[in-house]
Amino acid sequence: MTFNIVFVLTALSSLLYFCRRPQSLYKYLPRREIFQDIQHKRDVKPSKSDRGIKSSPQSTQATTDDNKLDHYRLMYYKLHNLEFYPSVIPNARAELISLFAEGIQKGKLKDGGLLEMSHYDPESVKQFIQKENNRIRQRYEKYIKRREKGGPRELLTTTEEAKTWLIQRAPSKYVDGAWLGHIHRASTPFVLRSITKNVWQVLSEELGDGDLSKNHAEVYRKLMHSIDAHIPDADSREFVSPTLGLNDIGIWKSAIAQLLISLFPHDFLPEILGFNMHFECLTWDTLLAAKELREMNIDASYFLLHISIDNSDSGHTAMATRIVLDYLQHVSKLEGDQAAQSAWRRVQVGYSLSAMFIEKQEDIIPPSQNIYSTELKRIFRAKSTVSDKLHCGSKVRFGGKLLHEWLNPETLSSDAEADRFLRVLSSSKPWVYMEDSSKSRLVKELKWNGKMFGAFTEDELLVLEHWIDACKQSAVEPATYWNFIGGKDPCSRDEFCNLDTRVHYPVISSQRISEDYENTPDSTMITTQTLPRFLTRQPVNLDKFLPIWFAHISLLEGFVSVPFKTCTTMACAIVAILRAQYGFRKETDGVAGMDELQRTRCTGLIEIGIDMMRDAGKPIPQGLRDVISDGPDGRFALDMLNLSMSPARNCDLLLGMACAFTGLHDSLAAEPDGTLPLSGENLGMIRCIAERERAGLEICLREVKRCRDRRVNFSEGVRIAKREIEACFQ
Ligand SMILES: *[C@@H]1O[C@H](CO)[C@@H](O)[C@H](O)[C@H]1NC(C)=O
Ligand SMILES: *[C@@H]1O[C@H](CO)[C@@H](O)[C@H](O)[C@H]1NC(C)=O
Ligand SMILES: [Fe+2]
Ligand SMILES: [Fe+2]
């Protein structure tokens, strides 16, 4: 919603001026002056139309906002360190569903929004996204013209303002990519992997494809340094300290939304895909920031990067749209058109959640319906017929409509439109503070000494006041979400206690490993040259081997779930290792973008595992539960899955295990007469994967080597995994 409060105020006041009652004091003011006033205000700040309304909140409002801010900050911290705060998970899910509900409520207020597309149709979706992009581009062209004619900067005026703007955005920029952080796991149902792998490619690009200097969060961190903003790491306690002064509640909220939506990839996949489709679209702020920061000699690379990488032809916008279409086609093929239509609803929900943060709106939609609304509508209608001839030529958009369009007898004669007007009005601070008419500027202006004094009679004013006082902030009801998608919450709180790592996510267990794997401290360092070797010509016990094969893919997955945690050389090396294990092509200097989506066959370790099962004459597995049993054969596999959920606590142990498995890959690739059912092609794949794994591990081991305690944990990981792998060949 584009909404210019200054302009609305002046325009409405002039409008009401014309429908004033005879005794109005306005008669002493010459008409022209008022128009000059409007003109002036519009010219001074043309750009502000895109920004939210800064209100000076009253004290009670301030306290609730502060509480919320604290709440978001704490949650931000916990979500960055999830393995130490697993108890936040049920709350996180509830919070996410409330956000969905809010996104739906706000999305419904918008004319021409995606929610209006009640029936899924691929062509319309493509056109819609294209249209959204064109709209921004055209608006940008107009902006450029204004600038060429010598117009002022419209987003950031002074260098100081720019710096503050950038610093305040750190909480959300530091989670760039977070909405996809948990996508494409070993536990992802295999049938969905062809979809989630493409989304993971988007994530991989957000993380720089393994190159720290291209990692988006890192680019923003560099930007912070370059403007001398020495803010703490995003995952630290200090970062969420109120004394730091990062206190834009909308930004924290948007950061929380990005972190939350990623957290339940198996439960909310369509929502994630929809969120991604909106999030990857170009935004007005990005376009303007890229240009205006450069003018001020501030490093604009973060924003330039997002203009090029998110482009709608081959970049993230195109990828995101294509992924949604692929997914819905997939659902339709597997489960029928009905299922695809309901999946579409959920895509819409995700999209609306992201959109909610771009199109600035007030926090909560008020029920502007109360016993006074009918009378108030009647009053506005009466005013509108008097002021009918007046079209103040304003370009103000107010809930998607020009002001004079609202106050037009025909518009207001429709009850739905009149309701809409009240709804929009009621959420327009400082005009109207719900439940507090005395704070509301509209009332003040209509009173004695106000600019619009006389436009309303005393009785009419009373109706307005009563109406405002009766406007109650509505809580966002989670049911809004369930009703919209036509389902009900399948998940009760108790269910969080008995989750299965093979099918659910996230499942964090604080226990380390199921039993003592003969722990004798040993700090001898294995290098990538001295990886364990395995006798793969010995007969293999597939019942033992297959579970650990499928589970070992999870070992390093936890390291890349939160963008800020990937701002290290080691984590970037892990991104590169995962790319190899998932079957992505070797990193090049460019970005793969749509190219990666064009590849149909993408052979990673899971796909190789599935091939082995097929070749061994076993039933084709649908997911980890079909491969990993509860019995002794599944024990080590489950341990690996559990450990992988706590990458900080088990860092070196996990790396050690990953090294042992690279040793296995090496051994398999070197032994064409091995006993595993592996085709020559898959052996070749494994060879390539092992090579890239070694290159990445080399980088990780440099760090591990330096510290004795880390070496001990690392060696233990190697030893445990080695013993378990060896036990499969004898
Ligand atoms: C691993 O996770 C499962 C739940 O998925 C749990 O039952 C088991 O106790 C965990 N094992 C360890 C060693 O933590
Ligand atoms: C080694 O592992 C133990 C157990 O998980 C952990 O408590 C310890 O902090 C680790 N040591 C290092 C240096 O990471
Ligand atoms: Fe990004
Ligand atoms: Fe992106």
Structure, explained:
By secondary structure, the protein is mostly helical. The protein has 3 domains: 19-40 and 58-80 and 367-473, no CATH class; 120-361, Up-down Bundle (Heme Oxygenase, Chain A); 542-726, no CATH class. The protein is 56% helix and 1% strand. It has 30 helices and 2 strands. The protein has a two-stranded antiparallel sheet with strand order 1-2. The protein is elongated and about 95 Å long. The model is unreliable at 1-60, 361-366 and 388-394 (pLDDT under 50). One fe (ii) ion (FE2) binds next to loops.
Q: What is the CATH topology classification name of the largest domain?
A: Heme Oxygenase, Chain A
Portion of residues in beta strands equals under 5%
| Count of alpha/pi helices | 30
Order of strands in the sheet with the most strands? 1-2
Largest sheet: 2 strands, antiparallel
Helix amount, in percent?
Answer: 55-70%
Q: pLDDT average, as an integer?
A: 84
- Give Rg in angstroms: 29 Å
Low-confidence stretches: 1-60, 361-366, 388-394
User: Based on the structure given, which CATH architecture of the largest domain is correct?
Assistant: Up-down Bundle
Give every kind of bound small molecule, once each. Answer: 2-acetamido-2-deoxy-beta-D-glucopyranose, fe (ii) ion
Into how many domains do the coordinates divide? 3
Distance between the termini: 68 Å
Using the alpha-carbon principal axes, give the shape: elongated
**Category from helices, strands and their pairing:** mainly alpha
The first-level CATH class of the largest domain is given as Mainly Alpha
